[in-house]
Design a protein that fits this description.
The structure holds two protein chains of two kinds. By secondary structure, chain A is α/β, with parallel strands linked by helices. In chain A, 51% of the residues lie in helices and 12% in strands. Chain A is built from 18 helices and 15 strands. In chain A, strand 4 and strand 5 form a beta hairpin. The longest helix of chain A is centred in the first third of the chain and has 31 residues. Chain B is mainly α. Chain B has 13 helices and no strands. Chain B has a domain of 186 residues: MetI-like fold. The chains are: A alpha/beta, B mainly alpha. Chains A and B meet through helix 1, helix 4 and helix 17 of A and helix 1, helix 3 and helix 12 of B.
């Protein structure tokens, strides 16, 4: 009898434990179907205690994490009463972090603020899902419209609403070159596509590898600079708002230019990271490389000297144009600590915050009034360009196209790399714009 | 009476895992099927009925065609290579050579390594750089005077997948060897001896006695290797990153869902993967269950 009771009790315990552990899972699934954030009015969910702020990012290592730490220090000094919770998730270029963030948002548990590439990567994903708040009032009260380039604002806005605070700026359209190789072969730094082709012909004839290229995303990076260099800034911007036809003859010329540029690249590009490819230039094994200006930080790390081991210019056909990308912070709809999150965003957009972050990260301020003496040689020249050039956005790094569209373009590009068929490439780019972009 | 009580108790005791499997395996399969029939694109769930349009889209998708082609190449090279090499190693070890235990462990060790580690090592070995930057196998071949063997490995157009399969063969042929070795040891010596007395050559013994008797082992190995190759993901990402030339359905599923937010399409790829694995596995499970019941 005793034994029977014991069995019964233990069986009951196991069942109840199992039910208890199943319960959250069972309720979670329907919760995800309710699209929580779209209806949640932010103001009514005002926090009980505004003494902490949770900020989500994928800055967990290197200059990025150090830069974030420096900015947190500034925040702690300005707002000593608010506890900063650093909810960073590790993983290359944010792939893991974004999957975690998507899960939290679908479960209705947003962090107060999170990091994302400024532009359509944020807008196409989170604004479309009703999960971030416009920040126009903050821009007005902090006077940021006066200190950030005029051409930047439309690129981080949708329907007149500004959705994020950019803390840093990187330049995508940089042509890195080896000054020694160019000089030895009597080649000047090219400023148009035709000059570039002529230069690469000369180098190839002399037995020099003209162009260093890496894995697939670096080819998309090269692609956007060739689009910009061939079409010019207005038509390039038009690609992304639907006013330039992807099926036009100009785009066809750009694609043919791109195919031609690829023919000068190293044969083992598919197995090289961007670091491997950039390193070929400073080691004198290739003459040119197109890469964002984070390469400057890498060259310094390698102990190379600016203007002797490596030189830089705007990519051909894009002089006076700054193709940018930027990390920025947003305000969540239904942020648990909305006031504290606003305080954080004020620091992220402030001169002090950006001056603390950027020299460590190796980027320039989104503001044009930062102290130049804090920055290295390359970055100082980038700061001059940032405050004077026309600003356009990067495709590879999330400014101009939403994630779905970008993935479709990436697929079209990958198929083109295998087939070399320009007409099919153009047709799939037209289809991508129609299915995921603004084209009808 | 006591038997009934035991039965009741048994059911109570396994019920938690049955409930968990029902929810977390079959529940989520059902949910994925539902998502694959929806128009869900973007962060917010959207269960608008889309019929089988996601599946039709995939069959017209040139990228999915590349994935299928790559999977076929990988499966063919990997399964055949592992079976042949595994069988060869097992036959060699079965000859009663000295230090058998040592070699057995040696050949089995690669299986203990994760695909990511294998991928990183083979990425270096199969470096396709030419000229002064040559390294890995290509450098070895050049130094040995075997210049004709120097090649672009996984960056070879069309057939790059076969190079990835080489790394997988290295990893899994030891496991296939272990399967075959167990099979060989289970064959009674009397059969071999009888054949020898009848005047059969060693080759004839393998051809007409050993290989037919090993058929169940070959089938098991085929199923295990086959379903692994359909799901291959980490090895390719470790060797080549996300490059369309070496795309497979699992990578496309990941990119479509988490990079492109095409949840409907991603779920459809997942269901196709599930079905293709099921076609391979279910007849095998039925076969084993039936033979076990007979014993």
């Amino acid at each position: 009898m005793n034994k029977k009771l014991f069995y019964l009790l233990s069986a009951l315990m196991i069942v109840s434990l199992a039910l208890a552990s199943c319960a959250p899972a069972a309720t979670e699934a329907p919760a995800a179907t309710e699209a929580p954030a779209t209806e949640a009015p932010a103001a009514t969910e005002a926090p009980a205690a505004a003494d902490q702020v949770e900020v989500f990012s994928w800055w967990t290592g290197g200059g990025e994490a150090a830069g974030l730490e420096a900015m947190i220090k500034v925040f702690n000094a300005t707002d000593p009463n608010i506890e900063f919770i650093n909810a960073a998730v590790a993983g290359g270029a944010g792939t893991n972090a974004r999957a975690v963030l998507a899960t939290r948002l679908q479960a209705g548990d947003p962090p107060d603020s999170w990091q994302g590439h400024a532009g359509q990567e944020l807008i196409g994903t989170y604004v479309a899902a009703g999960q971030i708040e416009p920040l126009n009032d903050l821009y007005a009260s902090e006077g940021w419209l006066d200190v950030m380039p005029e051409t930047l604002i439309p690129l981080i806005s949708q329907d007149g609403n500004i959705y994020s605070v950019p803390v840093n700026i990187h330049r995508a359209n940089v042509l890195w070159y080896n000054p020694g190789l160019l000089e030895a072969n009597g080649v000047a730094v090219p400023s148009t596509m035709d000059e570039w082709f002529a230069a690469m012909d000369t180098l190839q004839a002399a037995g020099v590898q003209p162009l260093a290229l890496g894995e697939q995303w670096t080819k998309m990076h090269l692609f956007e600079t060739v689009l910009l260099g061939t079409l010019g800034p207005d038509a390039y911007n038009g690609l992304w708002d639907g006013s330039t036809d992807w099926g036009s003859a100009e785009v066809k010329t750009a694609l043919e230019n791109y195919a031609k540029v690829l023919s000068y690249a190293n044969s083992d590009s598919a197995s090289l990271t961007w670091q491997d490819a950039s390193q070929l230039v400073v080691n004198g094994e290739a003459a040119f490389n197109v890469m964002g200006d984070w390469a400057a930080g890498y060259f310094i790390e390698l102990g190379k000297t600016a203007n002797t081991d490596y030189g830089w210019a705007a990519t051909p056909g894009a002089n006076g144009i700054f193709q940018f990308l930027s990390d920025s912070f947003v305000l969540a709809v239904g942020a648990p600590h909305r006031d504290a999150a606003l305080e954080w965003l004020k620091v992220a957009g402030s001169k002090e915050g950006q001056e603390a972050f950027n020299p460590v990260k190796g980027s320039i301020c989104a503001r044009t009034d930062c102290d130049k003496s804090l920055f290295g040689e390359y970055l100082q020249s980038a700061m001059d360009d940032w405050s004077s050039n026309t600003v356009v956005g990067s495709l590879t790094h999330g400014v101009v196209a939403n994630d779905s569209w970008k993935t479709e373009i990436d697929t079209a590009l990958g198929l083109f790399l295998a087939s070399g068929d320009v007409a099919a490439f153009q047709a799939s780019l037209v289809a991508a714009c129609a299915s995921s972009g603004p084209c009808k | 009476m006591t038997k009934d009580k035991d039965r009741f108790l048994n059911i109570i005791l396994v019920s938690p895992s049955i409930v968990a499997v029902l929810i977390f395996v079959y529940g989520f399969i059902a949910w994925s099927v539902r998502v694959s029939l929806s128009k869900w694109k973007g962060l917010n769930p959207d269960y608008t009925w889309n019929s089988i349009n996601n599946y039709i889209g995939l069959f017209n998708d040139p990228r999915f065609a590349v994935d299928v082609k790559n999977t076929l190449i990988f499966t063919g090279v990997f399964v055949l290579g592992s079976l042949l090499l595994g069988f060869f190693l097992a036959v060699m070890l079965d000859q009663g050579l000295r230090g058998e235990g040592f070699f057995r462990s040696l050949f089995l060790f690669p299986m203990a390594i994760s695909y990511i580690v294998t991928g990183v090592v083979w990425r270096w070995l199969m470096n396709p750089a030419m000229g002064s930057r040559m390294s890995g196998f290509n450098l070895l071949f050049t130094n040995l005077g075997l210049d004709s063997l120097v090649n672009a490995w996984h960056t070879t157009p069309q057939w790059g997948m076969a190079a990835i399969a080489l790394a997988a063969i290295w990893q899994m042929s030891g496991y296939t060897m272990a399967l075959y070795l167990a099979g060989l040891r289970a064959i009674p010596q009397e059969l071999k001896e009888a054949a020898r007395i009848d005047g059969a050559s060693e080759a004839q013994i393998y051809r007409h006695i050993m290989i037919p008797l090993l058929a169940p082992v070959t089938l098991s190995a085929l199923i295990i290797l086959g379903h692994m190759s359909l799901k291959v993901f980490d090895l390719i990402v470790a060797i080549a990153g996300k490059q369309l030339q070496l795309d497979v359905p699992a990578i496309y599923m990941w990119q479509a869902t988490f990079d492109g937010l095409f949840y409907g399409r991603g779920a459809a790829i997942g269901i196709i993967l599930l079905l293709s694995v099921a076609i391979l596995i279910i007849p095998y499970i039925r076969y084993t269950l039936r033979t076990e019941a007979q014993q």
